[in-house]
């Protein structure tokens, strides 16, 4: 019925907002902003009506959650970096119908998910920053999905991604884009060193690790990347434990995915972290490579943790 038209891994660094404002950081993130504008342009050209964002700033401790209120509007100040994002205005429509379909299909696939349409909960800045540059005219409806998952398996996040694709393609009458909103390595500069690392990666190891991952994405080495994702998320200090990336790859077919990433905004450093904007072509998949659900027992969790 519906179509998943575009998938991307995107940055949401708060210095993009600073880049708009008068001061020493003005204009310094224009490349990232231009990348968002370009991805938004492509969504419009493809007829996208709704953007689903996997938001690594939405922390949850149980279940997966979908914020699908009918409308979002307000002023946002980051609790993490209030000196970067303060009183940033936002407004855009939501999509309760799609959000509830996502939760319904995810539960059918064995991934416990709750949709919230009658809520006063606003999105976090992993959603708000990209929508500022892609959706200033409120052209797109927006659904936000929790992706800072404290007690969740990456396998389940991959299955959630596949369930989201099934909800779109099998049950939704419309065209959708999905964004994994999060960094590559995410080791922030130590307190007191943030200005020194404003445009740098925290360590040579993390920088080289990220560059190798980008190379793998461009080469289409998905079986190898999916196999290393849990360890990459751990040793690379993955933002949101890289659940956004697992959701993205799950929607695309996991290790059976056969596309190659297109880099829209080249890799850059921000406060020690590694960032980019990249588009992942959506290719036909049957979902056979999607990981089985993990055991839910404490013993199963311990066994997985010991392998990381």
Structure description:
The structure is a single chain. With 308 residues, this protein is an alpha/beta fold. It is built from nine helices and ten strands. It has an eight-stranded mixed beta sheet with strand order 6-3-7-2-8-1-10-9, sandwiched between helices. Strand 9 and strand 10 (273-280) form a beta hairpin. Mean pLDDT is 95; it is low at 296-308.
The dominant shape is: globular
What class would the helix/strand composition place it in? alpha/beta
How many structural domains? 1
**H/E element order:** EHHEEEEHEHEHEHHHEEH
Cα-atom radius of gyration: 18 Å
Going by CATH, the homologous superfamily would be LigB-like
Largest sheet: number of strands, sense, barrel closure: 8 strands, mixed
What do we call the CATH topology?
Protocatechuate 4,5-dioxygenase, Chain B
Please tally the β strands and state the result: 10
CATH architecture: 3-Layer(aba) Sandwich
What's the end-to-end separation, in Å? 40 Å
Helix coverage percent of residues? 25-40%
The CATH class label is Alpha Beta
Number of helices: 9
In brief:
By secondary structure, the protein is of the alpha/beta class. The protein is built from nine helices and ten strands. Strand 9 (262-270) and strand 10 form a beta hairpin.
